[in-house]
């Protein structure tokens, strides 16, 4: 745990004086909605330790976008969750209140696998729904692609594979799998939740997201995640924008 905290702080603040200060952007990670062993630093933008944390603003606008930088590898989950999710778990998507892409390349909800990214099994796209926005990482346009198949959440244990088709010698990132240093984009329009890897749509649209959801991140085993709420590395898909607090929408 000490090692993780030392890396997490990374020269930002000494371990004995960790404080969260407000930034010009009122949206940040919420210290009142986080797991008991989560540490939030860097003005409320960095999470490490063990457990989950929500952002302090629900996604109330029609099209929201945020990014998460994978600062250090470990076990992590990124996605959306309601305030009823269990933030003392180390994995997101294990309950009915969270929808997450995980470091083991699974998209989970309610403890069930909705999608699985797999770089080792080449295949062909079998249909599915692409979100608007960045160019989709399809087989026709990019070697760093995944295929997509819609999954019925009522069928337990359904776990379609979305094989990426990079060369055998290419890196995990080149083949469509997240790794340390990458940026995960999250776009939500109240119809679909979509994930992006370094600006490319992973083609794993998640439907039936319900409730007042917030951005969420889960960390464990040394993972360090930074939420990016403006000045994006890759930018939102067309029509999407940074998270707005509810008052600004009136």
UniProtKB/TrEMBL annotation:
Residues 121-153 are annotated as: Disordered. Residues 61-233 form the SPRY domain. Residues 141-153 have a biased composition (Low complexity). InterPro entries: B30.2/SPRY_sf (IPR043136), ConA-like_dom_sf (IPR013320), SPRY_dom (IPR003877), SPRYD7 (IPR035766). It comes from the Eukaryota. Pfam families: SPRY. PANTHER family: C13ORF1 PROTEIN-RELATED, SPRY DOMAIN-CONTAINING PROTEIN 7. This is SPRY domain-containing protein.
């Amino acid at each position: 745990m000490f090692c993780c905290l030392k890396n997490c702080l990374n020269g930002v603040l000494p371990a004995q004086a960790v404080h969260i200060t407000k930034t010009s952007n009122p949206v940040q990670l919420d210290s009142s909605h986080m797991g008991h062993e989560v540490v939030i630093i860097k003005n409320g933008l960095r999470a490490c330790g063990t457990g989950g944390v929500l952002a302090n603003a629900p996604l109330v606008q029609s099209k929201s976008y945020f990014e998460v930088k994978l600062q250090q590898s470990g076990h992590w989950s990124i996605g959306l969750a309601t305030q009823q999710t269990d933030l003392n778990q180390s994995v997101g998507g294990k309950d009915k209140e969270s929808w997450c892409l995980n470091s083991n390349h699974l998209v989970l909800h309610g403890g069930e696998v909705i999608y699985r990214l797999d770089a080792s099994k080449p295949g062909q796209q079998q249909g599915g729904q692409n979100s608007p926005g960045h160019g989709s990482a399809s087989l026709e346009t990019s070697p760093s692609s995944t295929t997509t198949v819609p999954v019925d959440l009522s069928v337990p244990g359904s776990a379609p594979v979305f094989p990426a088709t990079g060369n055998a010698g290419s890196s995990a990132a080149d083949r469509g799998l997240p790794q340390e240093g990458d940026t995960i984009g999250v776009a939500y329009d109240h119809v679909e939740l979509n994930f992006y890897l370094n600006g490319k749509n992973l083609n794993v649209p998640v439907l039936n997201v319900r409730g007042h959801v917030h951005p969420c991140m889960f960390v464990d085993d040394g993972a360090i995640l930074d939420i990016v709420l403006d000045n994006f590395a890759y930018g939102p898909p067309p029509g999407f924008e940074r998270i707005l607090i509810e008052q600004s929408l009136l």
